[in-house]
Design a protein that fits this description.
Blueprint: H1 8-35, H2 40-47, E1 50-54, E2 59-63, H3 64-89, H4 96-120, H5 138-147, H6 154-178, H7 185-203, H8 210-224, H9 232-240, H10 251-275, H11 282-286, H12 291-317, H13 329-338, H14 343-353, H15 357-382
Length: 383
């Protein structure tokens, strides 16, 4: 008997992602205005303020910005993990036939942008940023396609959501494997023990979500000090949350219901605000035409659209899968353009890619420009 999932949480997640995408746009504009106003220095001082607690054994004192990037974003990754697991149980990733198209499209839409960036930045000191144009921002992408309403088939929205979810999973794997350094195995061992405890709770049918969240918090601490990016703790915790075999709300759905709106209306907009508070300068705009800037812009706009379209074409022509119901090839190209809205995950990877502050700021600006172009072009094309 296949597991049935209560769809109420999915509807709420979809709706809050759409509204969250609109709020994201407001926060980006507001951040740029504040950063380039007389309040800019005060904002940067506030974000660099150290808060927390530390002694010889416990180290939990970081800047406000780092608490947002490493702490609050772990909750975002928890939500992404819950969505991935639910789609694997029931949804667009539940069966090989249904999952094939969004999975392969996400892979093609990640590899081609990375290749474009890698070729343009080969032997450059910015070559490590190849992971930046691989990601699709689910909140922004769903917000744009939802504004099209009935101009596009409903199946196309579901396909884009599934593609973005797989894309997030790929980005998580890339961060864990390629953007982690100085591994401390003892801390990883402690995190692994906590993960096994969570799995054990699942096997024994424990339904209290605190039994998973509390070990997840300690897992975050150990992973944060292990050298692997701490946000991975959110994904691992999500994978252990149990589901039910009927349509009664499961612990997984209950937790998703609790955190969907805070994530989409508070955490992601806050992350967007603090990470797009860029003080613009002439040198930074020059970075748009640098190898790094062009790698990001061409990767997100050209690489994403062609990667997604060509992979879908191969899947359909080979009989592996079929187009979403009511969709045409022109629709798939438009979805590919919307896939170029990188934003949240792209900015996240850019901060892990470079140690040079100017490179990070230039990368953020290139991501903003590329995501804006991808969103506008995708909307106009599909409309």
């Amino acid at each position: 008997m296949s597991k049935l999932i209560n769809l109420r949480s999915f509807k709420e997640f979809f709706e809050s992602s759409t509204g969250g995408g609109i709020l994201l746009m407001v926060c980006v504009v507001l951040a740029l205005i504040v950063a380039n106003s007389p309040l800019g220095d005060s904002l940067l001082t506030l974000l660099s303020t150290q808060v927390g607690f530390e002694n010889e054994s416990i180290h939990l004192k970081y800047s406000i910005k780092q608490w947002i990037d490493d702490g609050l974003m772990a909750i975002f990754f928890l939500l992404v993990g819950l969505e991935i697991k639910r789609e694997l149980v029931e949804g667009e990733l539940a069966s090989p036939k249904k999952a094939a198209l969004p999975i392969f499209a996400a892979i093609g839409g990640a590899l081609l942008p990375a290749a474009i960036y890698g070729i343009l930045n080969f032997s450059e000191d910015t070559h490590h940023g190849w992971g930046i144009p691989m990601a699709t921002d689910i909140a922004f992408a769903l917000a744009v396609i939802s504004m099209l309403d009935k101009r596009v088939p409903a199946s196309l929205k579901v396909f884009l959501a599934a593609l973005a979810i797989v894309d997030d999973l790929l980005a998580i794997l890339v961060i864990a494997i390629f953007y982690s350094s100085d591994l401390h195995l003892t801390y990883l061992l402690y995190a692994g023990i906590l993960f096994l405890i969570q799995i054990g709770f699942n096997k024994f049918g424990v339904k209290n979500i605190l039994a998973y969240v509390i070990p997840g918090v300690f897992m975050w601490y150990f992973i944060h000090h292990s050298g692997v990016h701490a946000t991975i703790a959110g994904v691992l915790t999500a994978m252990t949350l149990p589901t039910t075999e009927d349509d009664v709300e499961s612990p997984l759905e209950r937790l998703e219901h609790l955190i969907a709106k805070p994530v989409n209306f508070i955490i992601i907009p806050l992350f967007a605000f603090v990470n797009t508070a860029i003080v613009l300068s002439a040198d930074m705009f020059g970075g748009l035409t640098s190898r790094m800037g062009m790698g990001i812009i061409l990767g997100l706009i050209l690489g994403k659209s062609l990667g997604i379209l060509s992979t879908c074409w191969i899947c359909v022509k080979s009989g592996v899968s079929s187009l979403p119901e009511g969709a045409k090839w022109s629709h798939m190209f438009g979805v590919g353009l919307l896939g170029g809205i990188g934003f949240t995950m792209s900015i996240f990877v850019s901060m892990l890619s470079f140690s040079d502050a100017l490179h990070i700021e230039e990368a953020k600006l290139a991501i903003l420009v590329a995501s804006l172009l991808a969103g506008v072009l995708g909307y106009l094309y599909l409309k």
